[in-house]
Amino acid sequence: AARRRLPVRAMGGKYNRLKNGQPTGFNPFMLEKNEPNITFLNNFIALLATSDNSTLSTKDKEDINFAVRAVMDLDKEYRAEGISRLLENIQKDVDNENSLERRLRIWKKGGIYGWVFDNETDSLSFNEYDIYGFDGTEVLDNPAVINPLAFYLLFRVQQILDGRRVVVFLDEFWKWLQSDSFSEFAYDGLKTMRKKNGFIVPITQSPDEIIKSKIARAIIEQVETFIFLPNSKADYHEYTHEFKVSEKEYSIIKNLEDDSRMFLVKKGSENDSRGNTVVAKLDLSALDRGSMKVLSGSADNVAILDKIVSEVGENPQDWLPIFKAEMMNN
């Protein structure tokens, strides 16, 4: 969303928009050739081949493994449009309408979903910047695409868990949970990322949607700290039984004014010796108008930013003063 794009770029980060029908720049076959990556690619292609909820035969799995290894044996310069290269190594079965080749064909360039992974190169890298933002607003509502996209993105995130601090903010968390691949990552990630100096910050405006997830209880139990914003429509059962807030905490959440700039922070549980709840206040009213527009962007303001960046470049030290001045005079 636009409101995330501005602060990410202001902090010197890279922001990526994933839009239906437009090439993502992803090509998983540009991964380094090693057994862990080949295992991932086998599972990844199997996921693509079963996106219609069909199943794979033993022969299908063998054919996938053969084709994956054939592509990965090529030098990287010959792995452009990796899905197309893969299909060159899978035999056609013209008499079988549900053949492996036919199921994967929709992911080939020119197919319905060719824009997702069948690209010349792979632009996904976590080595150039410290901060990355991905806007998946459109693809989150595309069930055929979100599962393999989440599978690939999260695999790449796991690869950088090498001890450096990694924080993953996930807006519209409940929508991501609709992906089975993501659900598994969220459950495992909340448990294991902390050991590798990483953590996840799930964000949602719809607590009831999270509760509908089949792994909701497991996820909620793994969360170390909750931040509850004022919610005059807070459902008693959802908050007290699912999120385990006390009667007093529920009353605070429900009765805080929307414009109070206050929120409830809860760490641990009521019966946990570490349990601690505070009501905090974040008052940004002293910030100038220009700074506020950076923190809370709009589509119109992003368009202004893009115009400024086209003239002075991506470095926030160059465009930020101009943008803030423009906002002050707007």
Question: How do the helices and strands line up, and which of them pair or pack?
Answer:
Elements: H1 2-10, E1 14-17, H2 35-49, H3 58-72, H4 82-87, H5 100-105, H6 114-117, E2 132-135, H7 143-159, E3 166-170, H8 173-176, H9 180-192, E4 198-202, H10 207-211, H11 216-222, E5 225-228, H12 236-242, H13 247-255, E6 262-267, E7 276-281, H14 289-295, H15 299-312, H16 316-329
Parallel strand pairs: 1-2, 3-4
Antiparallel strand pairs: 5-6, 6-7
The fold-level CATH name of the largest domain is: Rossmann fold
User: What count of structural domains?
Assistant: 3
Return residue spans where pLDDT drops below 50 for at least 5 consecutive residues. none
What is the H/E string?
HEHHHHHEHEHHEHHEHHEEHHH
For the record, the CATH architecture of the largest domain stands as 3-Layer(aba) Sandwich
- Fraction of residues in H or I helices: 40-55%
The tally of beta strands, per DSSP, is 7
Termini separation (Å)? 22 Å
**CATH domain class of the largest domain:** Alpha Beta
- Main β-sheet, spatial strand arrangement: 5-6-7
Shape: globular
H/I helix tally: 16
Strand content: 5-15%
- Rg over CA atoms, rounded to whole Å, is 23 Å
Reported for the largest beta sheet, the result is: 3 strands, antiparallel
Structural class: mainly alpha
Mean pLDDT: 89
What's the CATH H-level superfamily name of the largest domain? P-loop containing nucleotide triphosphate hydrolases
Quickly describe the structure.
This protein is mostly helical and 330 residues long.
